[in-house]
Design brief:
By secondary structure, the chain is α/β, with parallel strands linked by helices. It has a single domain, classed as Ribonucleoside hydrolase-like (Inosine-uridine Nucleoside N-ribohydrolase, Chain A, Alpha-Beta Complex), CATH 3.90.245.10. Helix content is about 35%, strand content about 20%. It has helices at about 15-25, 45-55, 105-115, 130-140, 140-145, 170, 175-180, 190-195, 200-210, 215-230, 245-250, 295-310; strands at about 5-10, 30-35, 65, 120-125, 145-150, 185-190, 200, 240, 255-265, 275-280, 290-295. The strands form 2 sheets. The protein has a 9-stranded mixed beta sheet with strand order 3-2-1-4-5-6-11-9-10, sandwiched between helices. A two-stranded antiparallel sheet has the order 7-8. Strand 1, helix 1 (about 15-25) and strand 2 (about 30-35) form a beta-alpha-beta unit. The longest helix is centred in the last third of the chain and has 19 residues, at about 215-230. The two termini are about 25 Å apart. Bound molecules: alpha-D-ribofuranose and calcium ion (CA). Calcium ion (CA) binds near residues 10, 12, 14, 15 and 126.
Length: about 300
């Protein structure tokens, strides 16, 4: 039984890895891709990247809908092209996709897809949560219409990566994230507690490229700039953040996790965007989040490389 999913993304090098993993996983049926600001505030670029990645994988059949170009209420606070390169794909120029995005706005596209298949669709969000928050505004009953939500975002016990307290996707639109965590659905959270390991470098990139397919070569090339950014910050390797939100759906047994209630700080001068985890049940609120806390790194890496090698 395949799991129908929608992927909301700000592609991004690790977004591209996550999207290609989803396309290479027979357990998943990618119904559509929606784009959101994040790694760049140029939504046309985010959408062109999504279309190009799908074309690379031979999946021009999967619809793409462009979404929000900015956070719900605050100005864009991204780091633009610092981490992922000028075109957010490490400077790698993919062939322009032979088609356009759908005319439907991402939030409406999400609502329409979930209404069409009530209780079946899992929303996979690997960028800021603005589109999901807007979808909740359109359809307040959305939590009853989805099978689940899996996100890359947040940090429960680990440090932040955009501020000491916050991870980038949550920080980028803390108001949206608070609405998403408070919506009443169950959330699988692949936060920095789990997404910072394993870190990869040239040896693994060579392994991806050695498969000889377009997808492996593209990821190996796109990762070079992303890896250089991490090296400039003193790390020996780079994180495959977004991949974990997809891998947790196809190989859940690779992960350790705990259930916890999480809420999002939106006002703190130092802590805006922090995902606050109530590990001791002090709030007496439902533990809506399956917080991923660890992964079998060896199998994760083998699984990723094996699946990517299946693509064109
Ligand atoms: O903090 C990691 C997140 O920020 C990932 O989704 C990456 O793509 C960037 O958007
Ligand atoms: Ca992302």
């Amino acid at each position: 039984m395949t799991i129908p999913i929608l992927i909301d993304t700000d592609p991004g090098v690790d977004d591209a890895m996550a999207l290609l993993l989803a396309l290479a996983s027979p357990e998943l049926d990618v119904l559509g891709v929606t784009t959101v600001f994040g790694n760049s505030d140029d939504i046309r670029l985010m959408t062109a990247n999504a279309l190009a990645i799908l074309a690379l994988a031979g999946r021009d059949d999967i619809p793409v809908a462009a979404g929000s170009a900015h956070p719900l209420t605050r100005p864009y606070a991204g780091r633009a092209h610092l981490v992922h390169g000028d075109n957010c794909l490490g400077g790698v120029q993919l062939p322009v996709a032979p088609r356009q995005a759908e005319p439907t706005f991402a939030a409406q596209f999400i609502v329409d897809a979930c209404r069409a298949r009530p209780g079946e669709v899992t929303l996979v969000a690997v960028g800021p949560l603005t589109n999901l928050a807007l979808a909740l505004r359109i359809e307040p009953a959305l939590p009853k219409l989805v099978r689940g939500v899996a996100i890359m975002g947040g940090s429960a016990r680990a440090s932040g990566n955009i501020t000491p307290a916050a991870e980038f996707n949550i920080f980028a639109d803390a108001e949206a994230a608070r609405l998403v965590f408070g919506a009443g659905w169950e959330i699988i959270m692949a936060g920095l507690d789990v997404t910072c390991s394993p870190r990869i470098a040239e040896e693994y990139l060579d392994r991806l490229a050695a498969a000889g397919n377009r997808a492996g070569r593209f990821l190996a090339d796109a990762f070079v700039h992303y890896l250089a950014f991490y090296r400039s910050r003193g790390f020996t390797g780079a994180c495959m953040h977004d991949v974990h939100a997809v891998m947790a759906l196809v190989r859940p047994e690779l992960y350790t996790a705990e259930r916890v209630c999480i809420d999002v700080e939106t006002a703190g001068e130092l802590t805006r965007g922090q995902t606050v985890a109530d590990f001791r049940g002090l709030w007496n609120r439902p533990a809506q989040t399956r917080l991923l806390t660890g992964v079998d790194e060896t199998i994760f890496l083998d699984e990723f490389a094996t699946r990517i090698a299946r693509l064109p």
